[in-house]
Fold:
Amino acid sequence: MSFTDAIKACFAKYADFNGRAKRPEYWWFALFCFVVAVLLEYVSSPVSWIFSLATLLPSLAVGSRRLHDMNKSGWLLLIGIIPILGWIYLIYLLAQPGYAGDNQYGSPSV
Structure:
């Protein structure tokens, strides 16, 4: 999946917590959100905050779908509330390869 395809897919599934998301879809969207937020911070801090709030729901949705791809519950995103250790474990989970076959969250996306 290319960078633009990942961004389009994440915004098309703005609040869709069902299904699965492959690694490139998640990581390209995370990179997009980070880079745009940093660039907007140089322009105006309130604009950066507005962008971050606007992309919070799709970020949570794609994170949940990413965990579904590994046959894990999307509720595991709450581990990110725990400082440092929770963040490290969450990054570890999100970087793992997806489950190859069908699972309880659906069939693998193409």
Residues 8 and 29 are 9 Å apart (CA to CA). The helical segments are 3-12, 23-43, 45-54, 56-69, 85-95. The chain has one domain: 3-95.
